[in-house]
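Catalogue entry: protein

Sequence with per-residue tokens
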Amino acid sequence: MQNLDQLKQDLIETGRWIDSRHWCPATSGNLSAWIDAEQFLITVSGKGKGELTPADLMIVDAGGNPVNTQLRPSAETLLHSLIYSRFPDARYVFHTHSVYGTIMSRAIWSGQLVFRNYELQKAFSGIDTHDVEMKVPVFGNSQDMVALAKEVEQHFDSADACHAFILAGHGVYTWGKTAREARRHVEAMEFLLECEYKSCLLLK
């Protein structure tokens, strides 16, 4: 079991870091940290990520259900649960709602973004060269979290993972073995999305 106080501090600091970059405007996005195989810590619904306190973090079980609390978790908690169950090394999951992630995913809606020849692809664990295609799946947004989680799971059952996926018009999910690694994946993904968007403008 991880140290609960340290996990809370990690999420609070990450929330401030993400908020300072305007990647979770208003009360959007959610952040979580794995406690053990039975439960994880996640941000409560409706709270700005730059102003989190320990009281804004709640424990849910492996299925995303609240544990000993009346607090309400994010609607997307089930996707965090899926990531922890699907990727054993995942210990932190960060979900952002950035401008570039929203715009690029709306243009695709369902499919994938393919990044090629970016040096920053190597910021993602498991990628050690720019000379590969990094494929990030994009799933059409839905209010049916059960159906959406099933779609995401089916994709990763048949494809390699790149520590990220996107919900169209909604936001980016990234994860990592440590808070630092997960934050690195967030920052690298945002850089790549901004580059792709600006490249599209130049090609017009």
